Every structure is written in structure tokens, then in C-alpha cells.
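Complex 428.
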Amino acid sequence: MKPVKVGLLGLGTVGTGVVRLVEGHQNDLQSQVGSPIVIERVLVQNKSKLRNISIDASKLTEDPWEIVNDPTIDVIVEVMGGINHTKEFILEALAQGKHVVTANKDLMAMHGPEILAKAKEHRCDVMYEASVAGGIPIIRTLIEGFSSDRITKIMGIVNGTTNYILTKMSGEGASYADVLKEAQELGYAEADPTSDVEGLDAARKMTILSSIGFRTNVALEDVTVQGISSVSKEDILYASRLGYNVKLLGIAESQDGQISVSVQPTMVKQSHPIASVNGVFNAVYVFGEAVGETMFYGAGAGELPTATSIVADLVAVVKNLKLGVNGQQGVTAYKEKKLKTDDQISSKYFLLLHVEDRAGVLARITQVFAEFEVSLESVLQQPSPSNPQAEIIVITHDANKAAMNKVLHTFESLDVIRKVKSVYRVEG
Ligand code: NAP
Ligand code: HSE
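Predicted structure with L-homoserine bound:
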């Protein structure tokens, strides 16, 4: 019944939740793992800061090395964020034989393979369930639940801030700028929301999910990224009229051993389960060759939802300690990474074109699609408020990305087109 001692790096939103759960659920945790779990030391930036949790002041330190180098500590829980210095602490902790639980998606997306290799070398666990989709146990599900299957598609709403913004724009017809301001005031978006709205946060999470799902090492640079800052009220209105919702989707696909990973605003058919994931909620849709469609839904952030994932990882580490099997069941990236080229990436597209309103325009446009063998599912023309301009909405059949790029390139110099107003990938 020797207690398992935890060094907690960070006592902000998530760290506070971890302390609450470890203390509040101590009896249940002990019953599951057979030992008390004790938060032994806690790293903060400022010891005198007023906290909304009561904690023994003698446990607090501003010196990370006091925790990393403490030989009595068994597990480091890293919830301080940051990349370079945090990586240094984690690598040193692993070198000293300490297990690590982290919520740090930035770190795991950029340095995951190095950290996991170090963990293996020292027979330590590194667990990072909270790094993607907060309280949804998606990482463990991909590693264990899908171990018998071959995953061909992972599609995720993995950023709550952007989903909140798009939901509000869609439901209330509000503008992007107004909703972003509101999201910041409500504390959903960061003070600098760039990584949320430009898709980088989602790209980091998709790097982690696709690496695990496809059992290979996907790098952040392999992910093509487009954020939501160019999504307009008009686009959302058109989408809705045609039976689609606009969502910032991370999409990872694998066919015949070749993969693609992207993040972009996408028009999702309203009948698809992921189209109705609203507000700050997250969801991850996974398609397995054998199982077919599955979807996982829940809170993607927040103190207690995120802490449930961290403490579940802690329980897993302690169970491994008891069994003496730490460092043995990590994710194995045993497949060689082969990225798809643009002519192998296929999807439907939505285009909104502002065009001259005169005879022959539609024919000129459809001729360009035909030239590059992009087949059309539907074409709709309507007058625009700014006559003599017209609007043409096109939805294509599945087309490869290379062909679509050629179509768009040709449109740039086509005299009848005033503006390619919007282009979206279509799903569902
Ligand atoms: P936070 O509220 O800003 O808390 C960060 C904590 O770390 C604070 O206690 C801070 O100390 C401490 N800290 C930061 N830098 C430090 C340094 N250089 N030295 C010592 N202490 C330092 O952050 P959070 O929202 O809890 O997020 C923590 C991590 O979890 C991040 O990696 C984040 O991406 C990830 N995550 C967060 C959520 C969420 O819902 N918030 C969800 C999923 C994943 P002080 O308290 O003294 O300032
Ligand atoms: N900024 C992130 C989001 C927090 O909006 O989803 C959780 O990682």
C-alpha cells in the first residue's frame, strides 16, 4: 500500500481539476489501483498567486528541477503548457525513470516521437489522453478499442472555440468578428486566438490522432491547414439552404497505405452525425474497415473534463506499476509513412462564384470543369443583389485535389468570373 507520489507541473485550469479529482475521488482511485495516489509537489509560476483551490503551501515550488530531480516522485503530470522548456523537463524526468502524463498537444504534436522513444528507452509510460478532445477518451479508444481493425478515416471537430464561433454564426446569423469577440469575453478563445481560428490547434490534434490511428509518425508539416477567418455569413447561409452545416473539420484518411491529413472549414451534410455537434463540444468520427462508422462526443476542454482524462492516465500508469509493465504498451508507429499526392486526394467541392450575368457564362464555366475532368453534381444560378452580376453555386462529384487546383487556377484568368467567392470541401 505504498503511496504513489505525483509531481504536478502546473496548477492552472487543468492542474486545479487534477487536484480536485485526485483528492475528491481518492477512495475510488485507491480501490482501483491498490495504493493511495498523493500529489506530492506542485510547480507554479507564482507561489503567492491567489488560487481557487486550497493546497498545502509547502507543496508549492517555483523551481521545476525540485520536482523533476526528486527521487521520491514516481509520476510527473505536466499541465503547464509550453514547448521547449517543458520538453526538457519531461525528457529528464523520463531519463530518471519517472512516468509522465501530459495534456500538452503542442509538445506531443511536435516532439511526440522523440518523447515516446525516450520513454521506451527507460521503460517508462508517457500518456497523453487529455491532449486531444479534452474529456473524450479518444486516444485510448484508437490504441486499444481499434487495435483489431484498420482505420481508414478519422474526422474530428477538435477545436471548441471555432465550433462555438461557427455554431453562433449559423444559428444567429452573427458575423465572424462579433462572435470571436464574444468567445474571447466568455473565455473560450485564447487572448490571442490565432492558433484556434487559423486551424493550428486542430492541426496539432490531428497530427496526434492520425499518428495513433494509422500507426505511423505523422508530422505537423504533413497536415494542410486552413482556418475559419475567411468563412462569411453568406457562405453559411448558402450551406444551410443546400442542407449543409459549415464545420472546421480535421480529416485524416488512409487508403492502400497512403495517407492524407488536413484541417479546413468543410460543408457537412446535415444528416451526417458530426454536422449536429454544436457549441464548444468536440466529436471524433472514426471509420474502421471492419467496424464501419463510430463517433465519440463530449467536452473538448475545461477543468474537470480535461482532468478526467489526466487522472485516468494516472490510474493506467499506476496499474502498470503494480504489474511491472510500464513502457511496454505505448503506441507503436510500425508503418512507414506514405503521404498521398494531390491527385490521390479526392472529395466533393462547393464553389460560390460571382460572375457576369450574360449569355454563355455558364457554358464557359462548365467547360473548364470538363477540361480537367471534374464532374458536377449540381449547378445553381441566381441573380445577385449587385446586378448585373450573378451568383453560381457548384457542387462537384468526387474530384481530385490536383484537378480542382487546375480549375481554380484557370478561373483566375477567366474573364466571365469576377470572383471565386468561396471554395469548400464537402463531406457526408
Ligand atoms: P493555465 O491555466 O495557463 O495553467 C498553467 C499553469 O502552469 C499555471 O499554474 C502556471 O503557474 C504554471 N506555469 C506555466 N508556465 C510555468 C513556468 N514556466 N514555470 C512554472 N509554472 C508555470 O493552463 P491550462 O489551461 O491549465 O492548460 C495546461 C495545459 O493543458 C496546456 O498544455 C493546454 O494546452 C492543455 N489543455 C488545456 C485544456 C483546457 O481546457 N484548459 C484542455 C486540454 C488541454 P501560475 O498559476 O503561477 O501562473
Ligand atoms: N483552445 C482549445 C479549444 C482548448 O478551443 O478547443 C482545448 O484544447
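The chain has a mean pLDDT of 95.
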